Amino acid sequence: MAVSEHVDFNQFMEGVKRRNPYQTEFVQAVQEVAEDIFDFIQDKEEYHAQQILRRMTEPDRVVSFRVCWEDDDGDIRVQRGWRVQNNNAIGPYKGGIRFHPSVNESVLKFLAFEQTFKNALTGLPLGGGKGGSNFNPKGKSVREIMRFCQSFMTELYRHIGADVDVPAGDIGVGGREIGYMFGQYKRITNQFTGVLTGKGLEWGGSLIRTEETGYGAVYFLASMLATRGEDLTGKTAVISGSGNVATHAAEKIVQLGGKVLTLSDSGGFIHDPDGINQEKIDWVKTHKTHRRGRIEEYVDAFPGATFTAGKTPWGVPCDVALPCATQNELLGDDARVLVANGCKAVSEGANMPTDLAGVHVFKNAKILFAPGKAANAGGVAVSGLEMSQNSGRRSWKEDELQQMLKDIMADIHKSCLKYGDQGGGYVDYVKGANIAGFKKVADAMLAFGVV
Ligand code: NDP
Predict the structure, then answer these.
(1) Which of 3, 40, 306, 335 has the most beta carbons within 10 angstroms of its beta carbon?
(2) Arithmetic mean of pLDDT, 17-24
(3) Residue whose CA is at the smallest distance from ligand 1 atom 28
(4) Domain with CATH 3.40.50.720 in the chain
(5) What's the CATH superfamily of 212-374?
(6) CA 40-33-362 angle, 5° bins
(7) pLDDT value of residue 6
(8) What is the mean predicted confidence (pLDDT) over 108-120?
(9) Is residue 7's pLDDT more than 90?
(10) pLDDT > 60? residue 4
(11) How far is the CA of 27 from the centre of ligand 1 (A)?
């Protein structure tokens, strides 16, 4: 029974909602993709007959488990852990691990779904997955974090493997946490394999992994501006977040001649009209990562700046915007304010930071808008290159990696143009990324038959 003859878009989405009650983030991510894919597959009977879109919206499996650990007071704490293995049609599952109190099954299913398309766009043989826990690393001692990571891996290890599923970091999981988890994996299995990426350079990690998600989002932004004969020189940028992605995006904007006006965290945003230069970015990196401080303390160190509590930075007029904190941090009204203030381009460093209403505002205004699955693919691309280096038991030099990454980001931009060019000088990058990612995974699924 062909879907085209019997199910329209609204019926399809009703089914997704019915099967995934209360999973609002997952339903949102599916809707954003399905809005573009429905048009694309209208005349492609094989995708309908094989129910490809319907199959893609059902993860291969979702593993949920208990994580017990002992805090410094000797109290027993119980957290929930997950690994969502979404789709391995084109390679082993691949996607980060997030530790944040907001983590639940819906958030991880949306992230794993998005990751599947993003990984396909990189051109590397990577399937899509995501994992994490509702563990809150904030305020925990280093030893508590180590004990938690070890307990988490004590269950996770049986579900992953270098050719099965290769996790990396995400919010709340950086090099230190990857180290604790890799150490525990190695201890349990007695194997030194590329089972995690984002590893330290001394033990199988790759050069440029840490910086490339943020850098890549700026490279993608520069490619979009170039289609309109512009670059970043002299442009003002508003950035949210102050973690790995945000600080590296800020760094690259500064390197390419732009001026960064804002950074933020879950407490609010700082606005520095003098510009957040490299010295200030270095201060933020040390302050947030090593001192575990809050962004509001920036104004004590740099008195020209102001801090606004409990708000996002989208009201600050700018030429370009980079949401680099978390999902649904840029809403429809924020998008309207950005457009009204003359913002020309938005590049998503975070995953699904713009809600559906915001996406529609940017599309209708026809500004340059890069969805996270295209713009932030630089991180997972270098992770893919880390896996190749681990399999080949070798390390590539920085300039080799930079060149490979530049080629990958340029190819992603090209794929978006191929499927997103709407004529009249407007490229719908969301549509381009969705269709290019879908087609690659869908064609692999067709080859496998009904599995
Ligand atoms: P980090 O943990 O390094 O930083 C996260 C930043 O976002 C912090 O400033 C944090 O503030 C802020 N933040 C987190 N949750 C919220 C919230 N609910 N409201 C407001 N601010 C919040 O994470 P990353 O920089 O690695 O990740 C940021 C985004 O980029 C995520 O969407 C992630 O999925 C995506 N991404 C990351 C990749 C990577 O390589 N790291 C790859 C591709 C995408 P606070 O300190 O207050 O929590």
Answers:
(1) 335
(2) 98
(3) 325
(4) 212-374
(5) NAD(P)-binding Rossmann-like Domain (3.40.50.720)
(6) 100
(7) 54
(8) 98
(9) no
(10) no
(11) 21
Q: What is the 451 CA–ligand 1 centroid distance (Å)? A: 35
Domain 61-193 has CATH 3.40.50.10860: yes
pLDDT surpasses 90 at 160: yes
- The residue type found at 202 is E
**What is the dihedral angle through the alpha carbons of 414, 379, 239, 416, rounded to the nearest 10 degrees?**
20
| Chain position carrying tokens 């549509």 | 431
Does the pLDDT of residue 251 top 50, yes or no? yes
Which pair of structure tokens corresponds to residue 155?
């269950």
Report the predicted TM-score, pTM, of the whole model to 2 decimal places. 0.96
288 band by pLDDT with thresholds 50, 70 and 90? confident
CA nearest ligand 1 atom 4, residue: 243
CA 258 – CA 242 distance, rounded (Å): 18
Nearest atom in ligand 1 to the alpha carbon of residue 288 is: 46
Averaged pLDDT, 369-386: 97
How many CA atoms lie less than 13 Å away from 70 in the CB half-sphere?
A: 3
186 annotated active-site: no
Q: Going by CA atoms, what residue is nearest to atom 43 of ligand 1?
A: 376
pLDDT score, position 289: 78
Per DSSP, the residues of 182-251 read: HHHHHHHH----S-SSS--GGGT--TTTTTHHHHHHHHHHHHHHHTTT--STT-EEEEE--SHHHHHHHH
